[in-house]
């Protein structure tokens, strides 16, 4: 079983919901009539019985349904305020389907038309749709001006899907789209622009470089951190949450209490948080999911000796977008193992298969996920559990960070 999620943003770049990308197996690449529909229903049923919050947090779930699925009572397993029913573009529209859509709307469910490429005026489901999704690869923005104007006049919510660049996002926003989907948010906005975060990056780089020495000095680390009151405060908050009744009287004592490996993990996470401060929070969330997911993949594939490098690779995999620089510039002056830089800059090396698998799973490229899993001798059935563990860990970590 494969299940991943793709974020959907509102105009403020806050996550509105997640589209769930799922397949019952690596061989299942699309809905394929009634049998596939009900096979998928069993997956969705099991997923939501285990708790919808586990994968979409407190957001809405966008799920693709074919005609047979819609006409069944299975959508009603999920509470109406948590589910967006996406009607697939190839669904046969007849009186039975229209009546069922009306019934679901009456029960509070929102209806979205997926990959809409029909005539806005003539398509029979348009009057019942709350959300219309346009795939910008199939229907470029330049072809949609008339339809967009009519849809907005009729109170429809417009969702631009497969946005690849910030320019597309800005144009869609100007046209009146209010929801946006794609991985444009995880790419640098402007390559090579002056970077106001250089000081923050340099401060963390000094700490990371000290941690990478053969014998790191707690005294040197303490001296660096003591010069930054914000960082010192955040460190003490982290320690206080773990030390219980033990009193911590100095930065150096806090560091020795924490231990070098734990310091390194938290310094990296704090750096990602600060560097991504003016970016969508989902970007930091993605880096946290990747760090845990990559570490687990390394362990499960028998590469425990590089699990720490895999973890750091995942964490730093979005730093180019956070700094609006290319990856080579973003990682300059940070003393990282060559294996990490090879994978993120040169796209090669021992960590590259792990990175490729993380990315394939993340975007729902199940064919590539299957091939990479087999190449790495991974039990692909454990990938979903590993992914869910990463999502849960990232959620808990973010909550702790924002209480600091």
Please describe the structure with a list of short key phrases separated by commas or semicolons.
single chain, 404 residues, alpha/beta, TIM Barrel, 2 domains, 8 strands, elongated
List the topology elements.
Layout: E1 2-9, E2 15-23, H1 34-49, H2 53-56, E3 60-65, H3 67-71, E4 83-87, H4 95-106, E5 110-113, E6 131-135, H5 145-153, E7 157-161, H6 166-175, E8 179-181, H7 198-211, H8 218-226, H9 229-243, H10 251-258, H11 260-275, H12 281-300, H13 307-316, H14 319-323, H15 327-330, H16 338-346, H17 352-363, H18 366-375, H19 383-401
Parallel strand pairs: 2-3, 3-4, 4-5, 5-6, 6-7, 7-8
Antiparallel strand pairs: 1-2, 1-8
Helix pairs in contact: 7-8, 7-11, 8-10, 9-10, 12-13, 12-19, 13-16, 17-18
């Amino acid at each position: 079983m494969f299940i991943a999620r793709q974020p959907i943003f509102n105009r403020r770049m806050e996550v509105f919901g997640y589209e769930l990308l799922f397949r019952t197996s690596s061989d299942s690449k699309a809905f394929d009539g009634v049998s596939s529909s009900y096979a998928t229903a069993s997956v969705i049923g099991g997923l939501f019985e285990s708790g919808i919050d586990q994968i979409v947090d407190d957001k809405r779930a966008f799920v693709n349904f074919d005609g047979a699925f819609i006409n069944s009572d299975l959508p009603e397993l999920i509470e109406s305020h948590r589910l967006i029913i996406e009607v697939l573009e190839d669904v046969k529209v007849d009186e039975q389907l229209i009546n069922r859509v009306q019934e679901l709307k009456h029960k509070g469910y929102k209806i979205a038309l997926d990959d809409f490429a029909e005539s806005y005026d003539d398509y029979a489901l348009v009057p019942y749709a709350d959300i219309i999704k346009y795939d910008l690869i199939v229907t470029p923005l330049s072809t949609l001006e008339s339809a967009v104007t009519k849809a907005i006049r009729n109170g429809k919510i417009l969702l631009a899907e497969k946005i690849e660049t910030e320019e597309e996002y800005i144009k869609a926003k100007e046209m009146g789209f209010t929801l946006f989907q794609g991985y444009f948010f995880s790419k640098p906005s402007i390559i090579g622009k002056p970077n106001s975060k250089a000081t923050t990056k340099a401060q963390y780089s000094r700490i990371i470089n000290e941690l990478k020495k053969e014998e790191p000095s707690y005294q040197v680390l303490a001296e660096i951190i003591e010069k930054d009151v914000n960082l010192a405060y955040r460190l003490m908050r982290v320690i206080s949450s773990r030390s219980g009744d033990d009193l911590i009287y100095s930065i150096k004592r806090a560091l020795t209490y924490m231990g070098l490996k734990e310091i390194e993990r938290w310094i990296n996470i704090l750096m990602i948080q600060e560097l991504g401060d003016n970016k969508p929070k989902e970007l930091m969330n993605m880096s946290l999911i990747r760090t845990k997911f990559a570490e687990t993949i390394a362990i499960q594939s028998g590469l425990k000796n590089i699990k720490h490098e895999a973890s750091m690779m995942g964490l730093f995999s979005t730093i180019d977008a956070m700094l609006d620089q290319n990856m080579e510039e973003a990682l300059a002056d940070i003393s990282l193992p060559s294996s990490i830089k090879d994978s993120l800059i040169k796209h090669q090396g021992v960590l590259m298969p792990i990175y490729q698998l993380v990315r394939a799973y993340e975007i729902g490229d199940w064919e590539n996920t299957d091939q990479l899993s087999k190449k790495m001798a991974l039990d692909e059935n454990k990938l979903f559990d590993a992914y869910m563990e990463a999502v849960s860990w990232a959620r808990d970590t973010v909550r702790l960070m924002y209480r600091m």
